[in-house]
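Run: sequence + methionine sulfoxide -> complex structure.
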Amino acid sequence: MRNRIRFHRAENTEGPSASHDCVIFQPYATLTYHTGMADSNRMEQYKRLLTQLEPLIQKSPNLVAGMATLVALLHGKLRHHSWTGFYFVAGEDELHVGPYQGPVACQILKGQGVCLACAWRGAPVVVPDVHAFDGHIACDPRSRSEIVLPLKKDGRVVAVLDIDSHQPAAFDGEDVEPLQRIVNLLLPLVGENSRIG
Ligand code: SME
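>> structure
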């Protein structure tokens, strides 16, 4: 019997301090990773995507345009992604969907879920098995694993990048640093009013 993972706000407000620290939920150690490509290939692909995205984001006229461009490239190139998109922080316990690619998703996330766990903690969250994460919000019932990274400026989380996969354990700690670098390309576009709550 798998242990279900509980992640409640009150227990988790003190997040890791280093920017690339993350929370990885590993309810069982024997799970095989199905990454869809060799790990080194994936790291190379992240590097190429960073290089491609840098000038595109520099030319983006605003944050939403930059987010849309980032999501389009990631979702188009990374075959293990079933959904790639942003949620804006819209209050203490609420997120609102931003630019995304993939099946139609929940527009409002409230009170629970992996994305809110990331926003509350201000650190990336990796979930190899979404069924083992208590409070996971299943916008797409086929989703099996997930990674969420914060877009954080001056200590405040403005939005989170959420990536879902239909493959179990499609993400691990190795994905965190390169994806966070990609998300951080958006930082120059974050303004005073970017957080909508
Ligand atoms: N699974 C997320 C909800 C967003 S959808 O996956 C697009 C969560 O638990 O917060």
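>> summary
The longest strand covers residues 156-165. The chain has one domain: 38-189.
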